[in-house]
Amino acid sequence: MILQDKVALVTGGASGIGRATATLAVSVEQHAFGAAGAKVVFSDIRGVEGEETADLIRETGAECLFVKSDVSSEADVRDLVQKATLAVSAKQRATYGKLDCAFNNAGIDLVVTPLHEQLIEDFDQIMSINARGLFLCMKYEIQQMLIQGAGAIVNNSSTNGLVALSGISPYVASKHAVMGLTRSAALDYAKQGIRINAVNPGPIATDLMARSAGQMGITFDDLGSMVSMGRIGQATEIAQAVVFLCSDAASYITGQPLAIDGGYTAN
Ligand code: NAD
Question: Is residue 87 within 6 Å of ligand 1 at its C-beta?
């Protein structure tokens, strides 16, 4: 229970990596925020799927609050962080009252095509969610963490925040922006008890990756064969790393990317 009594926030928790990190589903029993002992507050733009994640967490006896919220809206993000700190614990009849860790995970992909064919509105949309949305989340999470004098933030970048992949230049730009925000914010708050790191997943079996693979006319097995380990990753394998980076076990780690990619970027 390495996050015992901590309050954790996850964006994009209705599916994929966000759900695996927020939830206590059978496949993640050792590692998700709920299993690690945290109270979980999570957001998504999809209400029905968000409530499904909430049910999965509550079935295990862990506490959570789902907030339908868009990371690209400043008002929504401000309200989300406020709700996290004001959430009322059913068990203890007290407010959660703080924000110890945050996983800024919400993100979108886009049409796979060379840069000259990419639409300007698609570029603007991906930057407004993957980069600006993550900036907004950090801005309001950090305001709360400064009051407490402590906190740990993990941003979901990608191997595409470390190296490029052809056909998805706006996505690659947005994930490199996440790395720039992570490193500079880590420097801003290193002396104030707030650690900020990134995870850089390789291909992970989620809805987002199924959409991308479908567009490219390839399967998860094809994607796996591009990775040194010869397989695609699972969302729980990212959740484990996020919980570690949020925990006190990572107390001397800040400003770092953690590639969780089956050796893809070691190549
Ligand atoms: P996913 O589509 O299963 O989950 C993303 C979630 O974010 C969805 O539930 C979606 O509704 C939500 N979301 C989208 N826009 C939002 C917004 N404006 N506000 C709030 N929530 C929003 O995909 P996933 O694979 O779990 O992706 C999660 C993150 O991981 C993304 O940032 C993605 O870029 C990153 N990532 C994924 C992979 C992969 O292979 N799956 C690899 C590297 C990085």
Answer: no
Q: Which amino acid is at 89?
A: S
Identify which of 143, 103, 74 has the alpha carbon closest to the alpha carbon of residue 7.
103
| Residue 32: CATH number of its domain | 3.40.50.720
In a domain, 2, yes or no: no
Number of domain units in the chain: 1
Is residue 1 assigned to a domain? Answer: no
Is the CB of residue 102 less than 8 Å from the CB of residue 137? yes
Mapped onto helix, strand or coil, the DSSP state of residue 195 is strand
Annotated active-site residue 171? The verdict is yes
- The response to whether residue 23 sits with its C-beta less than 6 Å from ligand 1 reads no
Instruction: Find residue 68's DSSP bridge partners.
Output: 44
- Ligand 1 pocket member 57 (CB < 6 A): no
**What predicted TM-score, i.e. pTM, was given to this entire model?**
0.96
Q: Which pLDDT tens digit goes with each residue over 36-47?
A: 788 899 999 999
Per the prediction, the chain carries an average pLDDT of: 92
Asked if residue 39 belongs to a domain, the reply is: yes
Q: Tell me, what's the pLDDT at 1?
A: 65
Q: Do 26 and 124 form a contact (C-beta atoms < 8 A)?
A: no
Between the CA of 4 and the centroid of ligand 1 the distance, in Å, is 26
Of 96, 140, 171, 264, the catalytic one is 171
**208 C-alpha vs ligand 1 centroid, how far in Å?**
6
R_g over Cα of the chain: 17
Range of the domain at 180: 7-266
Q: How far apart are CA 137 and CA 20, in angstroms?
A: 20
Where do the DSSP E strands lie in the chain?
7-11, 39-44, 64-68, 101-104, 151-156, 194-201, 257-260
Within a domain: residue 85? yes
